[in-house]
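ugh ok so i messed up the first submission bc i forgot one of the chains. this is the corrected input, ALL of the components this time, i swear. 410 residues overall. if the numbers dont match what u have on ur side tell me asap before i send this to the collaborators (the ones from the other lab, u know who)
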Amino acid sequence: MTADKPKTRIQAKNQDAILKGALDVFAAEGFKGATLDAIAEAAGLSKPNLLYYFPSKEAIYLALIDTLLDAWLAPLSAIDPGGDPVEEILAYVLRKLDMSRTMPRESRLFANEILQGMPHISATIAGRLKVLVDDQAGLFERWIADGRLAPVEPHHLIFSIWATTQHYADFASQVEALVPGDETARFDGARDFLDAFYRRALTPS
Amino acid sequence: MTADKPKTRIQAKNQDAILKGALDVFAAEGFKGATLDAIAEAAGLSKPNLLYYFPSKEAIYLALIDTLLDAWLAPLSAIDPGGDPVEEILAYVLRKLDMSRTMPRESRLFANEILQGMPHISATIAGRLKVLVDDQAGLFERWIADGRLAPVEPHHLIFSIWATTQHYADFASQVEALVPGDETARFDGARDFLDAFYRRALTPS
DNA sequence: TAAGGGTTTGACCAAACGGTCAATCCGACG
DNA sequence: CGTCGGATTGACCGTTTGGTCAAACCCTTA
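and heres the new structure output, hopefully the right one now
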């Protein structure tokens, strides 16, 4: 299903430029709002040249999602079953918050896709996501059973982490309008809040 | 700036039908994804007839936002300064969660708008929002100073409430894919989680 | 009932859109 | 150097889109 590996250096360079440009445009405008002309300009190519490397706008979009999904979900997989439960989850929260700061386009890309009802997410991708989430939910439940984590429903805990951290990327325009100071100050404030918040909520009594 | 009050019953009925249909379409497709034909069909009118009542697609969108914003923000204003801090904020959380269940289209409408960088939100609307948020943040700070609320930064607390509750409307497709059971069960689980979570996080030690 | 104004619509337009294609360009390799 | 296959593009196409307009419709009221 995914594209073959590039053969020549020109192919590698151009496919990379296209995906980079497409990330800019799709994240800012959504799938329907993005135009091939805008992607071509962002990639520094002509529109027919875009379609020499990808057969359609949707193919670019799918390749982009496929390329970014693993990196986007990696921190959830990286939770160490051997570590301290509260500290492991807190590290995940802060890692996700940092990704909202350093990778806001990826966050908005997925936010747009899910908001529209995930029309481009295949059953296999959704299945991969569900397996990962269910696995980590099972880990959380074991931690809870061992009394090392406050008893909270794991799926909703994961949702709350996604929601609170990605909020600073997806709804950055609103956050900027409501909180004074520069970006660094805002993310420092968010870090302090989320650390204290999740520490209180997750530490077993 | 806002449209005048409708004069005739036909005007009232059709403007209402247009705004209802537009809510369906804009919430599902976003501003750029929505088409006048789709809105017209959802409203049960012809496209030229739409444009007899509103001068443009953007005018429909602006009227819709203007109509819905106050109701959408009302629960935040409704927090009672004379009530118990933790219970007041918890009631706000559960009210917002309930709105995600009963008004998901409104939630997605605003989510789409903010995701795109609030290109249609005027300075006056943003100003109204900021005054409201800053006011309630001030109330939270007084509660904290009185030792009746755990010391958390109020703006980030409000963001977390918006994020965790609206998540169940904005990203419903993802929640449905990851949590088994029907909608009622999912929202019951979310309610239990958020109640316990915020109660722990907000109760002063 | 006749008229007048508010209401509705089929037909249309210009621009933007995703995508195609034949022609051209260019760089690697014998 | 010549050539051959990959790379690039200007011109173009059919469709969709937001919006227009003149004609027709219909509801109210005198």
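quick check: Chain B touches chain A through 50 residues (CB under 8 Å). that seems consistent at least. Residues 9-33 of chain B form the longest helix (25 residues).
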